[in-house]
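Budget justification aside, the reviewers requested a transparent look at the raw inputs and outputs of the sequence design task funded under Objective 1. We therefore reproduce one unedited record. The lines immediately below are the structure tokens for a 313-residue chain.
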């Protein structure tokens, strides 16, 4: 099942090989050292602007996906370096304020917006003129959503790990934030997967390894997958839509839309590093999508919130 580094389809721009690292190791390192990766620490996962320290961010989500994906990859003999590179890069294109920001840009930007396509654009174009990653890593990044069809088993591994990670850590954060109580989780899913965060992840990872080895491809099915999907549906019912934790989303959407429309009309105020497309809409979209939550709020305050005025004495 493993994708061998020596069999890579290569890079868009040929370059000399490294004497000590495989192509996939180099891709992983390029992603980790990118500015877009560092910005993930200040981007929302689910809960916007929490005051407590222990809620997930887009960066910690990425690291949890990476850990789960590497465990599954090792268990079934996949290429761990390729798996890790895809996992670390899969959310680089996410907007500020999580899926709320993505929803806005998809609505107002001509041609729409999706974070997985933007993640590929980040590594291909926006980050340091393009990271020139291998075809396999780029494919995994683009196709990581559940609806996607990754060409490699490593890409499928990250796709599955993404769902395992966010379902479980979003439950953990919702309980921590008082949105849910642990005993409110669907009993049928808890009986299958376990009654703690650690037990559920362990059950899912072991099942993924066993079923994948049996089927000869990355796989999760049967009552285990049904239980995971039941928890995901429960999160949509109780957390992702109309919960107290989501009450700031409309304000966040207003921030993103206002910034996008402003920079479309004022392309000269978009940093030169985003001057990779002549269209003002694309430049505005690239700039706003790359912002952290804090920076977006600061820019909004700078552009739209009146400053106090004092008469000079």
């Amino acid at each position: 099942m493993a994708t061998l580094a020596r069999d890579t389809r290569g890079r868009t721009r040929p370059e000399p090989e490294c004497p000590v690292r495989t192509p996939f190791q180099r891709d992983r390192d390029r992603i980790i050292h990118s500015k877009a990766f560092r910005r993930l620490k200040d981007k929302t996962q689910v809960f916007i602007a929490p005051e407590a320290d222990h809620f997930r961010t887009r960066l910690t989500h990425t690291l949890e996906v990476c850990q789960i994906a590497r465990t599954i990859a090792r268990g079934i003999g996949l290429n761990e370096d390729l798996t890790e590179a895809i996992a670390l890069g899969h959310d680089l294109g996410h907007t500020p304020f999580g899926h709320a920001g993505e929803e806005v840009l998809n609505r107002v930007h001509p041609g729409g917006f999706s974070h997985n396509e933007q993640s590929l654009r980040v590594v291909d174009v926006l980050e340091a003129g393009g990271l020139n990653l291998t075809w396999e890593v780029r494919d995994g990044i683009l196709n990581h959503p559940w609806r996607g069809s990754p060409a490699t088993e490593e890409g499928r591994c990250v796709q599955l790990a993404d769902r395992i990670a966010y379902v479980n850590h979003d439950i953990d954060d919702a309980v921590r934030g008082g949105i849910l109580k642990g005993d409110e989780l669907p009993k049928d899913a808890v009986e299958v997967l376990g009654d703690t965060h650690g037990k559920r992840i362990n059950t899912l990872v072991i099942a993924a390894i066993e079923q994948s080895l049996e089927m000869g491809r990355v796989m999760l099915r049967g009552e285990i997958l049904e239980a995971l999907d039941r928890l995901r549906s429960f999160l949509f019912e109780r957390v992702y839509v109309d919960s107290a934790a989501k009450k700031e989303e409309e304000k966040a959407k207003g921030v993103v839309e206002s910034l996008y429309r402003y920079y479309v009309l004022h392309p000269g105020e978009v940093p030169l590093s985003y001057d990779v497309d002549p269209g003002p809409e694309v430049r505005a979209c690239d700039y706003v999508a790359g912002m952290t939550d804090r920076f977006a709020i600061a820019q909004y305050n700078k552009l739209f919130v009146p400053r106090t005025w004092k008469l000079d004495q």
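The radius of gyration is 21 Å. Residues 153-176 form the longest helix (24 residues). Computational costs for records of this kind are itemized in the attached budget.
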